[in-house]
């Protein structure tokens, strides 16, 4: 039976949840910007193959503009366990999602995946084409029915057993070596795989030695000092300085020129204060807030329209800047320095003389966040100065595309001179923030 005041959910009485309502809810809700619930996990939770089979017993209640939808979601790790109750509340007049809450799972207080799965399920129902028949959603989920008839199956029943038992095939060298040396079969298999060059299969790729570039990762550097943990942040920074070399850093910049399309770029940014976050880090007083989570890898579930526009226009803006300044701009990956191992920068491009930063504001109001009266804002100035400092450039071009760039092709270009004293003060403040906010997390 449905709860008091609720009716069974059907294809004709569910609220309409479009993609803009979902995006607005996720981006405005702090539960869904933490490191734990970052993009890949959220995408997996929202996938059709899970939600459509796990959601069942859906019921609806309307009070004025407020619509409440309840359902039970089968936990995928234990389909025999009691289903979790999930509740979605939305304002149909304002077209906003007010809340999505799972009431039973262990992670329900921090924006769990069941809430994401249910919201995505309601969205998919909203996107389905109209049908002449009405489907009722007050029914048992498909996932909860798994294992009700056939509890288990024996290995011998999975296929027909041949009359003549085949002899096990093995490498005599491996068998002999395992017997004589006492090494485990796994260690010998890995050893022989490397000898024959088969190092990219499902097993051995987890035992490959990291490349020199991968060894620049803070994650790798932390793992190398686990037995003798540094007592202070400065001890760890000094250790990193000894392990990082200029040649390795130059190779990393070349290997990551595709930036956000390169997994290694994300790995090398992890736990480092990048130029775009330097101003915030230098002025942040909270060591356990969203800035710390962002530095540790948290990201938005989906790009905003402004972010998407910026990525689409960046290459076009670079072409215009090249034409105006009569220069050739090269792509640039993440710039690291052995002298400042906890810092990093990813300019949008560079020349022999300039570091290039591109901004593409979508409205006149947002232009002021980057430039005002031909003066670069304090936050962007910190970003550009740190980019010059790490790339050892004396000049930078700060380029702001006009809001009507698609039509006008106009770009405001400000030439910025390197300020060593500003950079040193900035790095000092960032190091203090890193020592108090990031160091305790990576060595927790």
Automatic annotation (TrEMBL):
One Pfam family in the UniProt entry: YqaJ
Annotated TM spans: none
Classification via Gene3D superfamilies: 3.90.320.10
A GO BP entry: DNA repair
Residue ranges constituting the YqaJ viral recombinase domain according to the UniProt record: 265-393
Name by which UniProt lists this protein: Uncharacterized protein LOC118263789
Record organism: Spodoptera frugiperda
